[in-house]
Specification:
CATH topology of the largest domain in chain A: Nucleotidyltransferase, domain 5
Number of domains of chain B: 2
Distance between the termini of chain B: 48 Å
Distance between the termini of chain A: 20 Å
Low-confidence stretches of chain B: none
Number of helices of chain A: 15
Largest interface: A-B, 46 and 32 residues
Number of strands of chain A: 27
Structural class of chain B: mainly alpha
Strand content of chain B: under 5%
Largest sheet of chain B: none
Helix content of chain A: 25-40%
Radius of gyration of chain B: 20 Å
CATH class of the largest domain in chain B: Mainly Alpha
Mean pLDDT of chain A: 86
CATH superfamily of the largest domain in chain A: ATPase, nucleotide binding domain
Number of strands of chain B: 0
CATH topology of the largest domain in chain B: Monooxygenase
Oligomer: heterodimer
Order of helices and strands of chain B: HHHHHHH
C-alpha cells in the first residue's frame, strides 16, 4: 500500500515506538525464532521451555497436522506421513533430490517442485514449511503478547532463486510479512561481529542439517560486506547420517529395508553420529522388524574415513570462495563455525587446519543464525536509534544467465555480485520476419543449458517483422535485496515489452497463495469480519490523509490529468467507506478501493521519493523538500 | 542523470582515491539501500532498489581500473568497440603468442613454477599498461586510451586462463 509520507532515510518509523520483529531460522533439522528484548537478542522458547522446534510435520487422517516434537516422535511409526528435512525439497524437482529412493515418502513428480502424497492429501514443500513457520509465528506472538510487524527469514547463502522464492512463498502462506530474506552465514556474522566488535576479513563455515555454505565477509565500521559466497545446497549433517546408515547396512549385510526399518536405522545412524562427537567409539544396537539384528561398533576413525569425501567437498568450496573474494587464506582474520554439524570434531579440525586458526564457536552453533536474524529484524523494523546502525551488503551466490542459440548459457549477472543489482544486454532475432522471442532464464555456473537450473521461460511477442539481426531486444535482469530476480524484455525499435517476476513455474502462483489464505479466512467468524472491516476503514482514512497531504505539498510533480485521476480514486474510496458504514459494502470492497488508490498514486510516490533521495545525496537539508 | 563520479562526488579522472571511493559508496548506500525502506510503500521500495542498484553499478565500475578506464573513454565519447575492433600492434600479438606457448607447456608439464613466473610477467604487463592508460586519459587522448584498454582486456582474459591452469594443476 502506498504510504505517501516520506521520511529521512534510516528513520522510517517514529522513535520510541517499538515494533515487534523476529528472526526465523528455518532449518533442515530444527527451526528457531528469536527477537531482541532490551537490546539483547534471545531465542524465544516454546511453552515447555524448549528453544528448538524440530522441522518435522506429521499429517493426520483428519487433515490436521502435528508439528515439532510430537511429529518427530512418530517418525519411525508413521514415516510416510511424517515429513522431516523438508527444506531439502524446497524449489526442487524429484531428480534433484539425493537418495530419494531411500526416503519413505510418496513423491509426486509435479513439474518443477516435487510434492508429497500424505494421508491428508498431496502437500507441496512450501505448504509443509509454512506449517513450521506458522508454528514459530504463533510461538513468538504468544511469548511477546502482540502481533508481529514482520520477520527476517534466513536461507542458505547458496540457495538459488527457486529455493529463495519457495521460502518467501512459505512465509507468506504462514501470514508472515517478510522484512528480508537473509543469508544464514551473514546472519551468523552479524551475531558474532556485533558481539565482539570485530573488524577484518572473516570466513563463516556453515554446515547445517542439509546445506553447506561458506561466506567470506569483510567487517569494518558499521558495514558487513559479503565478498563471496559458495557452498552446496544439498550437503549437510544428513549426509553424514546417511554415510553411517549405508556403512551399517553394508557391514551387517542387511536385506533391502522396509520403510519402517529404514526410519529406525536412520535414527540409529544419527544417534551414533552425535555420540561420536564426544566418544571415540560407539556401538549401534537395533532389532529390525524384518527380524534382523544389528550390533556394530564404529570408531571415530572409521567415521572420519567414511565421511572424508564430504569434508573434502566443503574444502573445495572454501578454495573457490576465497578465490572469488580475491582473498588469501592467510588474510582471513577469523573463522566462525555455524550449524549443528560443525560439532563433529573432525570437521572442526579440518577447518582449523585449513585456516591455521582455531575456529570461533562461542555462540551456540544451533542458535547463532536465529540470533543474528533477530538483530537484523530489529534494525529493519526501525527499532534502532539513529547512529546505532549498520549496513549489510550481500551478494547473489550463483550466476544468472539466458539461453542462447545452441543450448548455451550467456551469463548476464555473474555470481557474487553485490545486490541489489541489474544488468541489461541486447540480443537480436535469428530468422527473417521473426515476431516472437523465447526467453529462458537460467541460474548456475555451467555453459550448457542442461547443466544449469531453469528458473523461468517467457515470450516477447509482437515484434514487427524485420530482417534477421535487425531487431534490438534489450533484456534486463534485476535482482532485489532478497536475492530474487525479475526479468524484462523490450524491443527497442517498436517498444514492445514483456516482463516476468521469476516465480519458478513450479512455485506457488500468487493465486494459489491467495486461495489458500482465502480458505483459511472462510472459516473465520463474523467477529473477524467486523474486525477486518474496521481495519480496512482505518487504512482508508490513513491513505486518504496521506494522499491529501502529499498533494498539498507536491502537486507540482503531477500533470493536471494525473491530479484529476488521483482525485477520482480518492472520491471512490470516500464513497465506498461511506457505504460500508451503512453495511452496503464489505471489507474486501473497501480494500479494493484502497488498493486502487495506492496503485494509482505509486508513480507520484515514486517521484517524491526520487526527489527526496536526490536532495539527500546532494547534501541539501531534507526539511526543504519533504 | 549524474555520472558515476558525480554520484560519489569524486573528481572525474583515472586516479581514484580508493578510501574516498569506499567511503562515498558506503555513504550513498547508507541513504538509499532497500534495508532503510523496509517499512515504506512499494513505490518507495522500488525507487530505493533502483538507487542502490545504481550505486553498486557505479562502485563496481570505478573500483576496477579497467572498467574505470573504459568508462572514462565512454564518458568522453569514445566507444571501445570491443566486438568489432580487435586490431592490435604486431609486437603485442607476438608477446601474446609467446605467453600462450609458455602456458601450454606449463599446463602439459604441470609446472606450477612456470605458471607462477607467467603470472608475475602478466601482473607487470598489466601494471605498466595501466600506467600508460592513465597518462593517456590525463592527456585527454581517449582514442589511445581505448586502444590500451582493449589490450588490457586481452591481458585480463589471459590471466583468467592462467588461473584456470592453476586450478587444473591443484585438482
Amino acid at each position: 500500500m502506498a504510504l505517501l509520507q516520506i521520511s529521512e532515510p534510516g528513520m522510517s518509523t517514529a522513535p520510541h515506538q517499538h515494533r515487534l520483529a523476529v528472526g526465523i531460522d528455518l532449518g533442515t533439522t530444527n527451526s528457531l525464532v528469536a527477537t531482541v528484548r532490551s537490546s539483547i537478542p534471545e531465542v524465544l522458547n516454546d511453552e515447555d521451555g524448549r528453544p528448538l522446534l524440530p522441522s518435522v510435520v506429521r499429517y493426520l487422517p483428519n487433515g490436521h497436522a502435528n508439528i515439532g516434537y510430537k511429529a518427530q516422535a512418530a517418525q519411525t511409526t508413521d514415516p510416510k506421513n511424517t515429513i522431516v528435512s523438508v527444506k531439502r525439497f524446497m524449489g526442487r524437482g524429484l531428480k534433484d533430490i539425493a537418495y530419494a529412493e531411500n526416503l519413505p515418502y510418496d513423491f509426486v513428480d509435479a513439474p518443477g517442485m516435487v510434492q508429497l502424497k500424505t494421508v491428508a492429501g498431496v502437500k507441496s514443500p512450501v505448504e509443509i514449511s509454512a506449517q513450521i513457520l506458522a508454528t514459530l509465528r504463533q510461538q513468538a506472538e504468544d511469548s511477546l503478547g502482540d502481533d508481529l510487524v514482520g520477520a527476517v527469514i534466513t536461507v542458505p547463502a547458496y540457495f538459488d532463486d527457486a529455493q529463495r522464492q519457495a521460502t518467501k512463498d512459505a512465509a507468506q502462506l504462514a501470514g508472515i510479512n517478510v522484512l528480508r530474506l537473509l543469508s544464514e552465514p551473514t546472519a551468523a556474522a552479524i551475531a558474532y561481529g556485533l558481539d565482539n566488535g570485530s573488524e577484518g576479513v572473516f570466513a563463516v563455515y556453515d554446515l547445517g542439517g542439509g546445506t553447506f555454505d561458506i561466506s567470506i565477509l569483510k567487517l569494518s565500521k558499521g558495514v558487513f560486506e559479503v565478498l563471496a559466497t559458495g557452498g552446496d545446497s544439498a550437503l549437510g549433517g544428513d549426509d553424514f547420517d546417511h554415510r553411517l546408515f549405508c556403512y551399517i547396512h553394508q557391514q551387517e549385510k542387511l536385506a533391502p529395508l522396509s520403510d519402517e526399518d529404514t526410519a529406525v536405522l536412520m535414527v540409529k545412524a544419527r544417534e551414533a553420529k552425535e555420540l561420536l562427537s564426544t566418544k571415540s567409539e560407539v556401538t549401534v544396537d537395533a532389532m529390525l522388524k524384518s527380524g534382523e539384528e544389528v550390533h556394530l561398533t564404529i570408531t571415530a576413525e572409521t567415521f572420519q574415513e567414511i565421511t572424508k569425501h564430504l569434508i573434502a567437498k566443503t574444502m573445495n568450496a572454501i578454495k573457490k570462495a576465497l578465490r572469488d573474494a580475491d582473498v588469501d587464506v592467510d588474510d582471513v582474520d577469523g573463522v566462525v563455525m555455524v550449524g549443528g554439524a560443525t560439532r563433529m570434531p573432525h570437521v572442526q579440525r579440518a577447518v582449523g587446519d585449513y585456516f591455521h586458526t582455531i575456529p570461533h564457536a562461542n555462540i551456540d552453533p544451533d542458535k547463532v543464525v536465529a540470533l543474528g536474524a533477530a538483530v537484523q529484524a530489529n534494525l529493519l523494523a526501525g527499532n534502532r536509534a539513529p547512529g546505532d546502525d549498520w549496513l549489510l551488503l550481500d551478494v547473489i551466490p550463483l550466476s544468472l544467465g539466458i539461453e542462447t542459440m545452441g543450448g548455451l548459457v550467456e551469463k548476464i549477472i555473474p555470481r557474487n555480485s553485490t545486490i541489489p543489482c541489474a544488468r541489461a544486454q541486447e540480443f537480436t532475432t535469428f530468422k527473417d520476419g521473426q515476431t516472437a522471442l523465447a526467453v529462458h532464464v537460467l541460474q548456475g555456473e555451467r555453459e550448457l543449458v542442461t547443466d544449469c537450473r531453469s528458473l523461468a521461460r517467457f515470450e516477447l511477442r509482437g515484434i514487427p517483422p524485420m530482417a534477421a539481426g535487425a531487431a534490438r531486444i534489450r533484456i534486463t535482469y534485476q535482482v532485489d535485496a532478497d536475492g530474487l530476480l525479475s526479468v524484462s524484455a523490450r524491443e527497442l525499435r517498436s517498444g514492445v515489452e514483456a516482463s516476468i517476476t521469476v516465480k519458478p513455474s513450479y512455485g506457488l502462483a500468487d493465486e494459489d497463495v491467495a486461495r489458500m489464505l482465502q480458505d483459511s479466512y472462510k472459516e473465520a467468524s463474523s467477529d473477524m469480519q467486523a474486525r477486518a472491516l474496521r481495519e480496512e476503514q482505518v487504512e482508508a482514512e490513513r491513505i486518504l490523509l496521506a494522499t491529501q497531504s502529499a498533494l498539498d505539498e507536491d502537486a507540482s510533480l503531477l500533470s493536471d490529468a494525473e491530479r484529476a485521476e488521483i482525485a477520482v480514486l480518492m472520491q471512490t474510496v470516500r464513497e465506498i467507506v461511506a457505504q460500508s458504514a451503512e453495511g452496503k459494502a464489505d471489507h474486501s470492497a473497501v480494500k479494493a478501493s484502497v488498493e486502487a488508490l495506492a496503485h494509482g498514486t505509486e508513480e507520484f510516490a515514486s517521484r517524491r521519493m526520487d526527489r527526496s533521495v536526490r536532495s539527500a545525496l546532494a547534501g541539501k537539508a531534507l526539511d526543504q523538500v519533504v | 542523470m549524474q555520472n558515476h563520479f558525480e554520484l560519489f562526488q569524486l573528481p572525474q579522472k583515472f586516479a581514484v582515491d580508493a578510501a574516498a571511493l569506499d567511503a562515498a559508496y558506503r555513504d550513498v548506500q547508507a541513504r538509499v539501500h532497500p534495508d532503510k525502506y523496509v517499512n515504506a510503500s512499494d513505490a518507495e521500495k522500488r525507487v530505493a532498489m533502483q538507487w542502490a542498484t545504481r550505486a553498486n553499478e557505479a562502485y563496481q565500475t570505478l573500483k576496477n581500473p579497467q572498467k574505470r578506464a573504459q568508462y572514462l573513454c565512454e564518458l568522453n565519447g569514445v566507444d571501445l568497440q570491443i566486438e568489432s575492433n580487435t586490431a592490435m600492434p604486431m609486437a603485442f600479438l607476438m608477446q601474446q603468442m609467446e605467453w600462450r606457448e609458455e602456458l601450454a607447456d606449463a599446463r602439459a608439464g604441470k609446472d606450477a613454477d612456470a605458471l607462477d613466473s607467467l603470472d608475475q610477467q602478466l601482473r607487470r604487463a598489466r601494471k605498466s599498461r595501466l600506467a600508460e592508460i592513465e597518462q593517456q586519459l590525463d592527456a585527454a587522448d581517449f582514442h589511445a586510451a581505448a586502444q590500451g584498454v582493449r589490450a588490457l582486456m586481452f591481458l585480463e582474459k589471459f590471466g583468467e586462463e592462467v588461473r584456470f591452469a592453476f586450478d587444473a594443476i591443484e585438482a
